[in-house]
Each structure stands twice: as C-alpha cells, then as structure tokens.
Amino acid sequence: MEEKSKLDKIVEARMKLKARFEDQMAGTPSVSDPKPMGSGQINRHGMPKLPVGQIQTNKWPVLDLGFKPDISHQKWKLVIDGQVESPVTLTWDDFMALPQTEDTSDFHCVTTWSRMDVPWKGVRLADLAALVLPKSSATHILCYGYDKYTTNLSLEEALKEDVMLVHTADNKPLERDHGGPVRMITPQLYAWKGSKWISRIEFLSSNELGFWELRGYSNTAYPWRNDRYS
Predict the structure, then answer these.
(1) Which residue range(s) make up the domain with 102?
(2) Cα dist from 37 to 22, 32, 50, 108, 190, whole Å
(3) Of the four, 41, 72, 88, 144, which is 20 to 30 A from 202 by CA?
(4) Both ends of the chain: CA-CA distance in Å?
C-alpha cells in the first residue's frame, strides 16, 4: 500500500509538471519546427529520422573527456537538489525502486553520427523531477558527471517523455565506456546534453552553461537545425 501511495504521488506530481510546461514543450523545435532539416521517414515527434549532417552507424563510438570513472552500484549515488522542495540523494537501490521505463529512441552525436532505434531502460527525468518537486522558480537543470563533466538543459527539454537516466542499453547493463552504471539520454537534442556517469542534477532558477557550452558549443543543441555551435 505504501509503495502504491509513493507511485501515485510521483504520477500526480509528474502530471502537474507536464501541465505546467506543456505549452513550452510543444513549442520547442524538436517537436514543432515547421522546416526541420534531415532525411528519411518521420519519427514519432514529426522530425525526419536522420537529422541534417548526420551519418547513420550501427557502431557506438566512445567519446569522453579522457577519463572513465569506475563506479560500482554500491558506490553510485545521485544527488538531486537546487530549486526543489524535497532534495534527495538516491542510492542504486533507491533508483531501481523508482518507476522503470523501457523506450526505444535514436542517439545523435554532434560529431555527425547517429545510432538508431536503441532500446533503453531506466527512469524518466520527469519522474525524478516529480520526486523532488521543482519550485516555481526552476527553469533549467545542470547535470554533473563523476568525470567532472557538466551540461545544461531547459526544463521544457528535460521534462520530455523520452529524456531518461538509463542503466540498460541494447538489452544489457550500460557499459562503463558509455557512461555506466547510469547516464542521461536526450534523444531530441545532440547527445552531449546527456551526462555520462551522472552523479547530480541541480535545478536552477536561470541558465548556467556546462562544459562544452562554455567552450563554444550550442546552448540549445537542436539536431534538425544543425545547431552544433554557438
């Protein structure tokens, strides 16, 4: 009964967040661009399957800052704090006890390759947000990795249904090379917007640039606008 109550609270809070940001989410380029650039069939958001300037690959190239943290399930923790009503620190067991979502989505890297139809399993960022209840002042998040990486997203992007913190890819535990035990994915944006080896999500009342954004990469990162650099 207690678990059902906890789930009900998360669902209720997620629906309130969705209502709060629904208009903003609907107006973002990844779902409403009248002239998206790309090719192939139309995806579930109305965009061409392959964004402009991308090449489809079956391989999964490894890109990082030159340091691959080795974080065991026992040592992994996720801090969610900042402009929220109920900050939390989740252990692996806490994270796995949250509603688990399976989804299939595409992965677009700014270095011009796209990996299609990747099966994922993890927790929607919207469900994590529902757990901590963002304050009305919250407009963005800043994500941190165990490798000291950071990246920023607006809440209207972060709360989309297919933005997830995943522990499984291709039906097996997420490999260390690709950000395991847990990384964030942002199918509607270039993949650098999803932190590998994620350790913290900070809700902010204003935008704060992350690692690559400070070094000239786009703040918004829309693949169907070739939005790679600022």
Answers:
(1) 2-225
(2) 24, 12, 9, 14, 14
(3) 72
(4) 50
3-class DSSP assignment, residue 38: strand
CA–CA dist 91, 74 (Å, integer): 8
Residues 99, 7 contacting (CB under 8 angstroms)? yes
Contact 154, 221 (CB under 8 A): no
Q: Please report whether residue 213 resides in a domain.
A: yes
- Give just the sign of the alpha carbon dihedral 34, 16, 184, 209: positive
Q: Over its length of 230 residues, how does the chain's per-residue pLDDT go in tens digits?
A: 455 677 888 889 989 998 999 999 999 999 999 999 999 999 999 999 999 999 999 999 999 998 899 999 999 999 999 999 999 999 999 999 999 999 999 999 999 999 999 999 999 999 999 999 999 999 999 999 999 999 999 999 999 999 999 999 999 999 999 999 999 999 999 999 999 999 999 999 999 999 999 999 999 999 999 999 98
Is 230 inside any structural domain? no
Beta bridge partners of 102: 121
Helix (H, G, I), strand (E, B) or coil at 120: strand
CATH number at residue 187: 3.90.420.10
What burial letters (b/e) apply to 166-189, b meaning 16+ CB within 10 Å? Answer: bbbbeeeebeeebbbbbbbbbbbb
Domain count, the chain: 1
Q: Are 145 and 201 in contact (CB under 8 A)?
A: no
Q: Give the pLDDT score at 3.
A: 56
Identify the residue whose tokens are 């965009």: 47
